[in-house]
Specification:
The chain is an alpha/beta fold and 343 residues long. 40% of the residues lie in helices and 14% in strands. It is built from 13 helices and eleven strands. The strands form three sheets. The chain has a five-stranded parallel sheet. Helix 6 crosses helix 13. The structure holds phosphoric acid mono(formamide)ester. The site of phosphoric acid mono(formamide)ester has 9 residues, from helix 2. Phosphoric acid mono(formamide)ester binds next to helix 2.
Length: 343
């Protein structure tokens, strides 16, 4: 039987994402969930995490399941993902061996593996997540890969529904690039774009020239938005991008056109301090809620006055990570191997 995985967050479809957001809000309000004793989730973290790891562990406990969380290179063998590689480096274990073994012990696998930011085509292939999907006979949940962060997307959707109602068609949402000392992957902005598109929002992406998202992903998001009654536009002026927004999501990311020239990009990024989200920028919006997935560099990405202000939804969204993870696992496990997205 085909394992039904959660890879980019679009699997449940637009109504399914809305339903999961609503279910998460019910669970936050005290609704009882089905329990799944004897079910084990094995999470593999190839990169650090505070929210994803902790909220997942809370959700698993709250569903009566058992979590087993591994950090390869720290408490488990360092893992190689490249097919056909001669393993004479520092990785003693290959995912081709590790994943089927872990599937013998657990009922759901979950993995976090960020983009390398060195090779565009390698990152586009999402190689570690792809290995999990290839070798796992049980469902896989993406905990942030090179391209996507679907559990963050669910929490973002639940936050929007909580504040603005479940019909988000035509809602002006702005995703703005923000400064950062380091080149960061684009999984979160890609996910914001896809989730907003699924919800039929009118998404504006504001970024400086050179900090473009992958055109293949942008094109897909524009098509998904159109199917759901929304739109996607890109502007290179932050204040213009924030004008009229009901939600402002801030995030830094590296440019898709910056592959192979990250040093040049870093010099450019160092001159973009005026993209920090301040109260002055937020005044251009329609009293927008401010969001960031966290962790965030205060007074680099966003000014204290905004993230500590009355319109900051950052802690609420992070709190919803627990309830959205629970809603997702409940849906996946209640299907008992059948397609959970048909329910
Ligand atoms: N937003 C998010 O995924 O946080 P962590 O990296 O701490 O898990």
């Amino acid at each position: 039987m085909k394992p039904y995985s959660f890879v980019d967050g679009s699997e449940p479809g637009a109504q399914g994402v809305r339903d999961l957001a609503l279910r998460a809000l019910e669970l936050r309000g005290g609704a009882k969930s089905e329990r799944f004793p004897d079910q084990r989730l094995i999470g593999v973290f190839l990169n650090p995490s505070l929210r994803t790891r902790t909220s997942l562990e809370c959700a698993v406990y709250d569903l009566g399941m058992h979590p087993i969380l591994l950090s390869p290179g720290a408490d488990a063998w360092k893992m190689e993902h490249r097919p056909g590689v001669v393993m004479d480096g520092d990785c003693p274990e290959h995912l081709a061996d590790a994943i089927p073994v872990l599937a013998e012990y657990g009922d759901v696998l979950a993995v976090r593996a960020f983009a390398g930011l060195r090779d565009a085509e390698e990152d586009r292939s999402d190689p570690v997540l792809a290995a999990f999907l290839k070798y796992s006979p049980i469902p896989v949940i993406n905990l942030e890969s090179a391209l996507w962060h679907p559990l963050q997307g669910l929490a973002d959707a639940a936050t929007w529904v909580s504040h603005l109602g479940e019909d988000l068609r035509g809602t002006p949402i702005t995703l703005t690039w923000a400064p950062h000392p380091k080149a960061l992957p684009a999984a979160v902005p890609n996910q914001v774009a896809l989730t907003a598109a699924l919800m039929g929002a009118n998404l504006t992406i504001a970024h400086p020239e050179g900090f473009d998202l992958d055109p293949l992903i942008l094109n897909r998001c524009a098509n998904v938005a159109t199917e759901n009654g929304g739109s996607v536009r890109v502007v290179h002026d932050q204040r213009e991008g924030i004008r009229g927004a009901r939600v402002v999501v801030a995030k830094s990311w590296s440019g898709f056109s910056g592959y192979g020239r990250r040093d040049e990009e870093a010099e450019h990024r160092a001159r973009l301090g005026d993209w920090t989200v301040t109260a002055s920028q937020m005044k251009m919006s329609e009293n927008a809620g401010f969001m960031h997935c966290l962790p965030v560099r205060r007074n680099v990405v966003v000014a204290d006055e905004v993230i500590d202000g009355p319109n900051s939804w950052t802690t609420e969204t992070a709190g919803l990570r627990r309830w959205t993870a629970m809603a997702l696992l409940e849906r996946m496990l209640a299907a008992r191997g059948e397609n959970p997205w048909n329910a």
